[in-house]
Amino acid sequence: MAYNTSTMLVWQHFRLPPEGALPAFLFASLSYAVILFCNLLLLLTIVLSKNLRQPMHLILLNLPINDLLGSSAFFLQLLKEMLSESGRLWHPWCLTQAFFIHLYAAATVLILTAMAYDRYVAICLPLKYNAVMTHAHVMRIIAAIWLACLLMIGVLFFLLLRLPRCRSAINNIYCDHPSLLALVCANTTVNHVYGLLTVASTQLLANGAIMYTYLRILLACFRSRRSDTKAKALQTCATHLFVFLLLECLGLFTIISYRVKNLPPRFRSFMGSSTMIFPPSLNPIVYGIKTKEIRDNLVYFFRSKMIKSCVRDVHSSS
């Protein structure tokens, strides 16, 4: 069988009807703009606010960074293709996009797990919080998250790059590992086994840790005699669990869609795109703006800016 050494790939199912091209481009542009604005706002608020230096905020800081990383890898190529309509893609850029999309997916799950662990210590072990969640311990957690993700995804793509290609058609609207693996004409058993093992181990670790921590938090809330504390904790748990379950469901459906042969490619693309659009849009709202300390800093920042602007206008008019 002839191997394909070309550096150009072809989008197989990217063609949009003329009447749908403009609405699709506007929706993609607006979605990316919303994700950029919300995550940059959350990122700058945490970085510039001196009172947001608690362990929770240091872990939370990684969420907008990761969302910006993943959404940029997805949307920049998508918008470029919508504008050019070339139907072709450079293979190294496809690999880069796929690498960062998978890095985003893995890091999101582990960052949310670390945030759940922080909330568990804060609510269930409040007297030990400062002793457990020291700055050094938080830095080790953050470093472990990114090193584990880089190692897992690095090995995944190393196993992919060792195999020869003999096809060039990408059956998705973005590049990911399954799409690139479909271009290979060789035995991919090792790749499939490693991929399934990493997904299974990550999901078992994340889901087990999150379910355990939130169950302990809920039990602590019900035992609390303060109704306001109970209501606040329950609301926080509910919103955080909703976003996490949304991410898990979208990710699970995307993984299953590659195992179902007769599934329409557009449905598979829709599920994968939803994973790249909805969680990065909701994360800064649920984990950022709904957090009292961050919301107070945002209000203070905008109020101070408005006051300075008014004073400047008064001085200039006088």
Kindly describe this structure:
- With 318 residues, this protein is mainly alpha-helical.
- It has a single domain, classed as Rhopdopsin 7-helix transmembrane proteins (Up-down Bundle).
- It is built from eleven helices and three strands, in the order βαααβαααβααααα.
- Strands 2-1-3 form a three-stranded mixed beta sheet.
- Helix 9 runs antiparallel to helix 10.
- The radius of gyration is 22 Å and the shape is globular.
- The model has no long low-confidence stretch (mean pLDDT 83).
What is this structure's SSE topology?
Layout: E1 8-11, H1 18-48, H2 55-60, H3 62-84, E2 88-90, H4 91-124, H5 129-132, H6 135-161, E3 169-170, H7 177-181, H8 189-223, H9 227-259, H10 265-289, H11 292-317
Parallel strand pairs: 1-3
Antiparallel strand pairs: 1-2
Helix pairs in contact: 1-3, 1-10, 3-4, 3-10, 4-6, 4-8, 6-8, 8-9, 9-10
Number of strands: 3
**Any idea what the CATH superfamily is called?**
Rhodopsin 7-helix transmembrane proteins
Radius of gyration computed on alpha carbons: 22 Å
Tell me the fraction of residues in β-strands, as a range: under 5%
N- and C-termini, Cα separation: 81 Å
Helix content: over 70%
> Mean pLDDT across all residues, rounded?
83
